[in-house]
Amino acid sequence: MRRLQALCLTCLFVTTSGLGMAQIVPRAPVVKIAAGTTPNILPDPTGVYAGAAIVMLQGQSGTFNQQWRIQIKAQSCAECAPGEYFIYGTNYDGCLYSSGVEERGGVYGFVSPTGNTVGLELFAINCPFVNPTNFRANVSGSNSFAGDEFGGSFGQVPGTAVTIKNGVLAGRFSGRDCFGQQITADVNLQRQSGAVATGCTSLAGTYNGTFANSCGGNGSGTITISQSGCDFSAYLTLLNGGLEGTMTSSTTAMVSLNDPCSVGIPTGSLNVAPNGTITGTYSATSRGGSGCCPAGPISGSFAATRQ
Predict the structure, then answer these.
(1) Which of 35, 98, 119, 207 lies at a 20 to 30 A Cα distance from 170?
(2) How far apart are alpha carbons 136 and 116 in whole angstroms?
């Protein structure tokens, strides 16, 4: 399978109105509703949806079959109409790269009372990990940033509108992956029985960080962590690479490093102290060479204190 890049989406809602001088607008007739009737509105769509995604990447022929997972969690919304749902604070797992890296990020948008109009944005929170050399590159000739994808008519590529009905999330997402390449995905995701969309403690913020490894390397610097839902990431200047992680409890997380000196993807864990200080460890296999530890197994540790 080729080096697929993932997606993220952003919804643009534009309302236009024209008011002419001395213009008379006829009043719409009043439609009577029979007593005792209620609108046929969609039940709460909260849940975890998983299934097939047919993915197309600009410049490559053919399509790629992937497995995607999107969490939907309806949030309180004082201004929402009955049956209208506001979505944020959960995560998605998108395209899997040949390197073993998977795009992950946040979900944001709305669902209409009928489920026929769904404006969802998928924004890749882990672009610093997927593409650490240029993770915030603006897409040439576009107003979209890499790692943003949108559903239906809000996306960059026309396609079937996204709907959530009868336990199925289906339609087209399109935008730019973490490498700035145009991507589309036609999804058909089923709500998973018993799976629950959850929220997590946020580590987002700027920290003073230090690191050390078993071959004598060490250093310090500023680290900025971005987070959506349970997923977070940061660019590590000290390592010239990126970090991604997923909270596993209010005080623990599993992490992975995209380190140019390592063979494969180093993994580790971190802990969060009551005062917000983060400490962690990881293990890796060095590929050796200039600026890297000698080839072979290494271990490392890191710490970060919020500014």
Answers:
(1) 98
(2) 33
- Tell me: the pLDDT tens digits for 100-113? 788 999 999 999 88
pTM greater than the 0.90 cutoff: no
**Placement of tokens 């990990």 in the chain:** 129
pLDDT 10s digits, 57-78: 887 788 989 999 999 988 878 8
What are 173's strand-pairing partners? Answer: 151, 185
Kindly list the domain boundaries of the chain, sorted by start residue. 47-191, 205-306
Residue 190 neighbours by CB under 8 Å, 6+ apart = 49, 50, 51, 167, 168
The CATH number of domain 47-191 is 1.10.760: no
